[in-house]
């Protein structure tokens, strides 16, 4: 392509992106089309990928196309396999995209669509993508070492220990928080509960089909599983309309929580092929298909956003979760902008598949951009709802009241008109008994998605099917995270306990499997139970706690990245990771301070504990608040220690007191470059 | 000597424009089929079909319930330790 044409193309893309961003940022008092968000995001991503990521690749990381990757050097056809970059991209995206980028933006929409959208776009381009890209490359240069191993070798033993504690904490709190999202979505919903219950025997059937009937035909089994899940959605409608069956599947939050805990334990101790693997395949199949469908739906229908760009709740008085736009918008949306959890995936399976070093840019940076786009779509799904409906679905009974009329009056008084009759009609259209107080983000996302789809495919008549399809899609994601996370946590516990008593570290010894699975399930189950019993709905406490943990893990990952960049002698470019690191420190430390010490009982855990104590509430509720405060404070202190240890290491290297040694695998010339040239 | 007519026993000669069109089509075809091939390859990798084929090639065995059980056993720890992001 001639240079003049390229210059024109990129100038036009930049101007289009700037115009779209100005449109979404400056429009007040009138509704805008969702396409402005899509255009702003795509143009920014294109410019960020073309210029910023290539600058980082060339100047900061000095990516070497002639250096052999571990996939080439250690190729064993099993863990290390040189793989086409698009295939690795798909593999990586399937691992990083989960329920987080769908739930976080929906919750953050209480501030209006603007803060969340700007954070998703800017956070991804300047922070999240860089973390994923840099950690992926550094892991590739260290034979696919994990993030915790890199923290240990590059920062120090303490860095490694804190990474371990941060990872296990984030897994426990993440599992508790996402399990609560499922409980809130399925509470008193026989249709949804039946559909999700059916996914378990379907997964077992898939496992048996793969093992006994058609070995290895996973795509075929997943397609069959998907057809059975669709049948379960239609069957769920029949169940919800048959009083005797509806009674069986109409469950309370407490019962659902117990069932999820039992499920998590079973998934952790049963053979992988029987439940975990087929569920994972089914979830990935639905995930890739539905995300593509949602993107097509938004582009084809170009819906109007009814949510204003900013709501009155930026001051911190929001009903969905308490806390002002800074810092709470930035921890509510973690996956989709910056997610520390991604650093585990970028230093897990992915680096062992990378064929050539330059491909880390597309997989690491590009994969995160794709996830960020999913988060923008979730923001659109929440913002196409009438604000009154959005707040009616997402506000807990403790804030707006239990009775529909009371809730509608409260929400209307905030300036977002909604009536009990309107909500009853919407609930009827989606096949639910009520849509009031359905906190957690999943039902609001499902209503938004059903709204988008039913306008093109099937009309209002099939809105209930689309709603339950969306609920199934989210719950399937979450249950996959739940069973995979419980197992990963179990292995981590076994690794740690093996240092205390050797047999406990043996991953195939059944008593050890049972004990560590029970410990892991009890840990996240406790947080789930606490959320179910929380008078403020649970999400108000658990989601910010999860966001803080996730961003603290990102802080550790960026400490590792900054340390390596300094040791590589690239100090002049260190701002690339140092600026997102400083931002995350500001966000997470401020958020933690507020969650622990803020005098407002809706924000501060300790203030809430004091309020409950003075009201003579159940001592367990008081203990829960104190526990949440202790978890947040402990993690912040540990991450502060890593920060200090990293800063001392930087000072030692920069002052020349310590040689700038990077622990990379020695250079080996690639054969693939020569083969490609031939 | 006159040229043999098309369909009169002699092989039909392609017209120059038709030749050019078929050349264009064969040049375009890979750019259409390649994305689909890549998509299939990606799905086969994500859904562990490609790793299973590699396992069969490495172990020099044919696909069977026993071979698949061995493949699952070999990858069980790696799969169970693979986190899924939130």
Question: How would you characterize the overall build of this protein?
Answer:
The complex is a heterodimer of chains A (about 675) and B (about 90). Chain A is an all-alpha fold and about 675 residues long. Chain A has one domain: Amino acid/polyamine transporter I (Up-down Bundle). Chain A is built from 28 helices and no strands. The mean pLDDT of chain A is about 90. Chain B has about 90 residues and is an all-alpha fold. Chain B has 2 domains: about 15-45; about 50-85, no CATH class. Chain B contains 3 helices and no strands. Chain B starts with 15 loop residues before the first helix and ends in a 6-residue tail after the last helix. The chains are: A mainly alpha (about 675), B mainly alpha (about 90). At the A-B interface, helix 4, helix 8, helix 9, helix 10 and helix 13 of A face helix 1, helix 2 and helix 3 of B.
Structural features:
heterodimer; A: 678 residues; mainly alpha; Amino acid/polyamine transporter I; 28 helices; B: 86 residues; 3 helices; elongated
- Gross geometry of chain A: globular
- Cα gyration radius of chain A (Å): 24 Å
CATH topology-level fold name of chain A: Amino acid/polyamine transporter I
C-alpha Rg of chain B (nearest Å): 25 Å
- By DSSP (H or I, 4+ residues per run), the number of helices of chain A equals 28
Distance N to C terminus of chain B: 79 Å
How many domains make up the 3D coordinates of chain B? 2
Class per helix and strand makeup of chain B: mainly alpha
Structural class of chain A: mainly alpha
Query: Judging by the overall fold, what is the CATH architecture of chain A?
Result: Up-down Bundle
Total beta strands of chain B: 0
Summarize model confidence as the mean pLDDT of chain A.
92
**Unreliable stretches of chain B:** 1-10
Largest interface, C-beta within 8 A: A-B, 60 and 39 residues
Which CATH top level class of chain A fits?
Mainly Alpha
């Amino acid at each position: 392509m001639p240079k003049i044409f390229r210059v024109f193309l990129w100038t036009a893309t930049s101007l289009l992106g700037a115009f779209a961003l100005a449109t979404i940022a400056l429009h007040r008092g009138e509704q805008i089309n969702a396409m402005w968000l899509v255009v702003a995001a795509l143009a920014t991503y294109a410019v960020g990928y073309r210029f910023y990521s290539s600058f980082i690749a060339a100047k900061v990381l000095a990516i070497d196309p002639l250096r052999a990757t571990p996939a080439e050097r250690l190729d064993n056809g099993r863990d290390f396999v040189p793989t086409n970059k698009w295939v690795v991209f798909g593999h990586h995206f399937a691992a990083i995209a989960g329920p987080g980028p769908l739930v976080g933006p929906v919750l953050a929409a209480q501030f209006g669509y603007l803060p969340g959208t700007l954070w998703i776009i800017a956070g991804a381009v300047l922070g999240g993508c860089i973390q994923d890209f840099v950690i992926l490359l550094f892991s590739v240069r260290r034979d696919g070492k994990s993030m915790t191993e890199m923290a240990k070798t590059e920062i120090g033993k303490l860095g490694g220990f804190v990474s371990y504690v941060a990872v296990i904490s984030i897994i426990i709190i993440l599992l508790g928080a996402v399990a609560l999202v499922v409980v809130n979505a399925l509470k008193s919903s026989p249709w949804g509960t039946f559909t999700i219950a059916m996914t378990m025997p379907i997964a077992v059937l898939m496992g048996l089909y793969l093992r006994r009937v058609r070995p290895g035909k996973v795509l075929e089994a997943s397609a069959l599983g998907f057809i059975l899940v669709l049948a379960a959605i239609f069957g769920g409608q029949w169940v919800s309309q048959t009083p005797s069956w509806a009674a069986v599947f109409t469950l309370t939050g407490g019962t659902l929580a117990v069932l999820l805990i039992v499920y998590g334990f079973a998934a952790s101790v049963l053979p992988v092929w029987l439940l975990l693997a087929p569920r994972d395949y089914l979830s990935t199949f639905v995930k890739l298909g539905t995300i593509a469908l949602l993107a097509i739906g938004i582009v084809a229908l170009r819906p109007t956003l009814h949510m204003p760009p900013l709501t009155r709740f930026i001051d911190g008085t929001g009903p969905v979760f308490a806390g002002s736009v800074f810092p709470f918008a930035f921890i509510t949306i973690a996956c989709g902008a910056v997610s520390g959890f991604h650093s585990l995936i970028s230093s897990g399976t992915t680096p062992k598949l990378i064929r050539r070093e330059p491909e880390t840019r597309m997989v690491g940076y590009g994969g995160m951009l794709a996830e960020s786009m999913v988060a923008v779509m979730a923001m659109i799904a929440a913002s196409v709802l009438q604000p009154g409906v959005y707040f009616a679905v997402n506000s807990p009974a403790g804030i707006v009241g239990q009775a529909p009329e009371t809730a509608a009056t409260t929400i209307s008084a905030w300036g977002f008109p909604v009536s009990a009759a309107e909500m009853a009609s919407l609930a009827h259209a989606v096949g639910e008994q009520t849509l009031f107080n359905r906190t957690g983000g999943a039902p609001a996302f499902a209503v938004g998605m059903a709204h988008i789809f039913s306008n093109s495919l099937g009309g209002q008549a099939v809105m209930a099917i689309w709603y339950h399809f969306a609920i199934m899609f989210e719950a399937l994601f979450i249950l996959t995270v739940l069973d995979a996370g419980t197992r990963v946590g179990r292995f981590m516990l076994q690794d740690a306990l093996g240092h205390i008593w050797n047999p406990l570290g043996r991953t195939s010894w059944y008593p050890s499997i049972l004990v560590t699975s029970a410990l892991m399930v009890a840990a996240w189950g406790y947080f789930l139970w606490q959320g179910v019993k929380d008078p403020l709905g649970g999400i108000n406490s658990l989601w910010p706690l999860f966001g803080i943990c996730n961003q603290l893990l990102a802080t550790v990952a960026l400490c590792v990245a900054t340390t390596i960049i300094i040791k590589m002698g690239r100090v002049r470019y260190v701002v690339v990771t140092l600026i997102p690191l400083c931002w995350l420190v500001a966000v997470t430390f401020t958020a933690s301070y507020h969650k622990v010490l803020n005098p407002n009982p809706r924000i501060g855990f300790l203030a809430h504990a004091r309020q409950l104590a003075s009201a003579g509430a159940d001592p367990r509720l008081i203990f829960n608040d104190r526990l949440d405060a202790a978890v947040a404070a402990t993690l912040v202190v540990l991450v502060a220690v890593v920060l200090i240890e990293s800063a001392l290491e930087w000072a030692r290297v920069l002052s020349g007191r310590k040689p700038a040694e990077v622990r990379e695998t020695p250079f080996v010339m690639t054969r693939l470059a020569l083969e490609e040239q031939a | 000597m006159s040229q043999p007519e098309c369909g009169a026993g002699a092989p039909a000669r392609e017209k120059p424009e038709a030749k050019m069109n078929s050349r264009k089509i064969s040049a375009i075809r890979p750019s259409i089929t390649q994305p689909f091939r890549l998509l299939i390859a990606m799905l086969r990798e994500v859904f562990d079909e490609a790793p299973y084929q590699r396992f069969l090639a490495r172990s020099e065995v044919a696909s069977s319930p026993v071979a698949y059980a061995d493949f699952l056993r070999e990858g069980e720890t790696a799969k169970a330790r693979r986190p899924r992001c939130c």
